[in-house]
Every structure is written in C-alpha cells, then in structure tokens.
What does this fold into?
Amino acid sequence: MRRSLILGGVTVLVFPTAALAADGASGGWIGPFAVIAAGIGMAIAAGLCGLGQGRAVASAVDAMARQPGAAARIQTAMIIGLALIESLAIYTLVIALILLFVKGIQFS
Amino acid sequence: MEAIDHPPIFRLPGIPDHVTYTWLVMIILAALTFAASRNLQLVPRGIQNFLEVVLEQFIQMIDDVMGHEGRRYLPLLATLGLFILTGNLMSLVPGLAGPTGNLNTTAACAIVVFVAYHGIGARKQGVVAYLKHFAGPVPLPLKPLMFVIELISHLARPLSLTLRLFGNMVGGHILLAVIFLLMGLDGLIGWALSGSVVGAVVGGIGGVVTIVFTVGFLYPLKILVAFLQAFIFVMLTMLYISGAIEETDHHSEHH
It folds into this structure.
C-alpha cells in the first residue's frame, strides 16, 4: 500500500518533468503542476462554495416559509448573498484560468 | 485554449474583438432608444412600450433599495444594467463575441462604478465628512486601523465586481466550448460536410442532436446567468451608492 503510494507520488512528480523536458516549450517544469493545481483548486472551491450557498439558501427558504409576506425582500437579499459567496469561487476560477491559459508567466 | 477557441465571424483587423462588439452593443442600444423616443406618444405602443416597461423595472428596483431619492442615479444604473445585459446576451449568439467576456470591459464598468460612487458620496457629504465615515464608529485609537481596513475593502470592491462578471461569463463560455468539444461537434459537422451520404446522415443527425441537447440544457442556464449577473452588478452598484450617500451618524445609533 505504502509502496504503491510512494510509487504513484514519484510517478506524478517525475513523469510530467520528463514529458515536458521533451516538449520544452511552455514555461519549464511548472506547467503540468499548474494543470494539477488548477483542477484541485477548482474542486475545493466548488465544493466549499456549494456548502456555503447551500447553507444560505436553506436559511432563506426557511425564512420565506415562516414569513411569506417578506419573500421578495428575502429573495433579493439571498441573491446578493449568493453572488458574494459565488465570487469567492469565481476568484479561484480566474486563478485556474490564469494557470491554464496564460502563456509566458515565468513561475520560477 | 486553441482547441476550444472559436473566434467570432465578423472581425475588424487590428481591433480587438471585445472593442468591436462593445461598439455593436452601443449601436444596438442607441438605435433602440432612438427608435423608441423618436415618436413619443402618451399611450405607448410597440418598442416604446417595451422600453418603458424595462425602465419601470429599474425604477421599481431603485425605489425598493435606495428609496425615492435614488432615482437621480437612474441614468447610471440603467445604462450599466442594459449594457451588461445586452453584452451578456450577445455572447450567447453563435458567431458573435460578448464584450463582457473580456476582463477589460468588465474592469471599465467596475471602475466607472468605483469613481461614480465615491464622487457621489464626496459631493453629497463633503470630502472631509466622507473621509471621516471611512473610520467608522470606533474609539479614537482604533480609527487609523479601521480607516486602513475600510480603504482596502473599498479597493477590493471594483476588483470583485470585475472578476465576478468576467468569471461568470468566461466560465460559461468555456463550459459550453468544452461540452461541444467533448461531444465532438466539430468532427460531426466536418463529417456532415465531407460529401459522403453516410457521413451526411450520421454527422448531420449527430450534430443536430448535440446542438439540441446542449442548447436545450445549457442555454437556459446561461440566459439565467446573463440576467442574474446584470442584476447583481446593478444591485451592488445601488448598495454602494446608497452606502456612500447615507447620512452616517453612527454614534447616535450605537449608544
């Protein structure tokens, strides 16, 4: 188990280096790690953003069920709050896009 | 990016796409308003009726959020909202590019908002009072700290406005492009145009199924996002402006 983990780690660490050494074009050895980082970062951001938005929507729907008269105002506040929460995930998306698509950043 | 990059059909050489399509949005909006206001009638019909409904929605929203005095800022808010909404919807039309899918356009809108709400606040309250309200309702030793924190949070506002609109739009575009790529739309269309009968039948049917599937599921979502982001932008602008013009007397509130 542990040996396969170590082997996997070594494979992940070594293979992109070797693959890119042949390629040689885009930004040195950091490129493949940028792809991995973009994927993992986006996954974490999406998951936690979903948790946060779920809490917000749950409270808002609860409040709307208790006070149907105030539903419009609650909905407006909820949408603003959702946008503010979502923007945190959007920051990560922008970072991921930068990591994936922006050429010519010298990371080293 | 090259694999999923589909440039728009109409391009002016030497001019970036988003500038071209920003001008297209401006021309569309100007033509609409000109056509609506050329022959004003007391009982509106047609396009005048439509634009009056749109503007009444804006006025309703302003009244709800900012109160009656917020109507002074209707031109700024409605222009921003209509421009962003038209740009968002335009980026959904195949063959056109969306001006809001570029960081420069959204940053321009956000900087306009930033300058506008600080200008409005400073003119309404006076520069010194406006700067004082940055420091907040805290005891004197804490005021420099609060001032710096408020300053940073105000500087983060245009950044977050910019990135929110840009990220939502570009994220949607990349989602659509990746799904078309994964379903092999280019290959299917190429097969349909290759000339052989089997290719035309299979590729044509496959292409139509792909497009209908994607458009039927993802386009409603993207249209919702287009409206929602324009709404959010205008709503946050309203909140910023009403935060800047409110007569702050924090001490009386807190004691």
